[in-house]
Amino acid sequence: MTVLVTGGAGYIGGHMALALLDQGEEVVVLDNLSTGFAWAVPPAAKLIVGDFGDSALVDQIFADHRIDAIAHFAAKIVVPESVSDPLAYYLNNTAKARNLLECAVKAGVKQFIFSSTAAVYGEPAENPVFENVALAPINPYGRSKLMVEWMLADVAAAHQLRYVVLRYFNVAGADPAGRLGQSSPVATHLIKVAVQAALGHRDGLDVFGTDYPTPDGSCVRDYIQVTDLVDAHLLALAHLRAGGGSLTCNCGYGRGLSVLEVVEVVKKVSGVDFEVRLKGRRPGDPASLVAGADRVRQELGWTPKHDNLAEIVEQALSWERRLHNRKAG
Ligand code: UDP
């Protein structure tokens, strides 16, 4: 059988495509290359350049391939951009996901893995935050993803489709074998920005907010390494294929690090004391988000292998160097 990976030319989807191929699966990648790259898709996967919201195209893909599962990564993911352009997020992340689900139901695809986000929690009353708390996203990005979670629950109740929703905390790092990493044309995520600053590919780093109710005043996040995150998807696929029920799991390590702590680790690992400017808050940012990560371990048997920020930063640095040389060459 074949797995359809939407967004497989992007950061996390690309690592998923690699991991699926590594375990002998057939992979079809559907990606419109808006932020992904054709070169990031492993040659053994079939790349179809197009939009997952294009129902005629998706119908055709289901007709042409024996797809038993969809891993849906394609999305817009930048919180401040979702604040300034919410309709783009509701179109891309929500409305088009509805089309994809409709095609899946029509074609009888019964297994769906969805990339959700810790942003569905908004500003949680307590951290770590567990899956069963009331959800109250504070930005359009989180709301655009939460609506898909709701759609999935309703679709699963009405049709023969089961799902695993994985709520990602902050994803970082790169394939330990160096085959892939985060290649987004415009870097906005903290570790990517910090390694670019360390390598002199950008002029220092702005810290957005130092007056949050956190130990050092900067925001606290739970940074999870990308292949550890992909492992959770492989386990989710195995769970669904074994007939397992629908499930929603946080994906994080259960420990928080502040922006200032992350910056210190990037400085230490890189050996570069780049400029850090303390700035005001960025719209849409909650103060703290740390995963209650028991369920993914218990229900899917997940065991992380790279729970170490220095290692994650080292991976990000070495990918960034490679990416830079590729562009220079
Ligand atoms: N951040 C920062 N400077 C940057 C990029 C991010 O201070 O150049 C902060 C951001 O305000 C947030 C944290 O780092 O508090 C994580 O942001 P990121 O964009 O990496 O992920 P998000 O949590 O928004 O998904």
Characterise this structure.
By secondary structure, this protein is α/β, with parallel strands linked by helices. It has 2 domains: 2-172 and 224-251, Rossmann fold, CATH 3.40.50.720; 190-221 and 254-328, UDP-galactose 4-epimerase, domain 1 (Alpha-Beta Complex). Helices cover 40% and strands 18% of the residues. The protein contains 10 helices and 14 strands. The chain has helices spanning 11-22, 55-64, 79-84, 86-107, 140-158, 190-198, 226-241, 259-270, 294-300, 309-328; strands at residues 2-6, 26-31, 46-49, 67-72, 111-117, 162-168, 170-172, 205-208, 220-221, 223-225, 247-251, 257-258, 276-279, 288-289. Strands 3-2-1-4-5-6-11 form a 7-stranded parallel β-sheet, with helices on both faces. Strands 12-9-14 form a 3-stranded mixed β-sheet. The chain has a two-stranded parallel ribbon with strand order 7-10. Helix 1 links the parallel strand 1 (2-6) and strand 2. The chain is globular. The termini are far apart. The mean pLDDT is 97.
